[in-house]
From TrEMBL:
Domain Glyoxalase/fosfomycin resistance/dioxygenase residue range list: 12-115
Species annotation: Flavobacterium cupreum
Protein name: Glyoxalase
SUPFAM superfamilies: Glyoxalase/Bleomycin resistance protein/Dihydroxybiphenyl dioxygenase (SSF54593)
Pfam families, A to Z: Glyoxalase (PF00903)
InterPro entries assigned: Glyas_Bleomycin-R_OHBP_Dase, Glyas_Fos-R_dOase_dom
Amino acid sequence: MEHQIKSIRPFIGAKDFEVSRRFYRDLGFEETVLEANFSVFKSDAIAFYLQDYYAKEWIENTMVFLEVDDVDRYYQKLLALNVTEKYGVKLTPIRHMDWGSECFLHDPSGVLWHFGKFSE
C-alpha cells in the first residue's frame, strides 16, 4: 500500500476544557475552534485535537511525544512560562539517555507530554 502521509493528529481529552485551552495557547499552540467543545491546536506542521471529554483511565494513560530541535531551550521556555504554578501541573527535568534527551510535562488533565530530541 502506497501513501503520502501528510500528518497525524491525536485526539486528547480535557477534564476542564477552558483551562486546557488556555494551557495549550500559553504553550504557543494556535487554536482553531471547530465546535463549542472541540478545537484543533497547531504549531507549524503539527496539530492535535482537544475535546471537552474526560475519562480518567484514558486521559491518565495518554502520552504524546513531541520532537523538538533543542530540549534544553524548550525546557527553559516551559520554566519561564511558570506553568507549574499557573496550572498546578508537573514538569520533570530533562533526562539524557543513549537515544536522546527529553523532559516531561503533564497537562492540567493528566496527559503526559514528552518533549524530546533524538541523538544524531
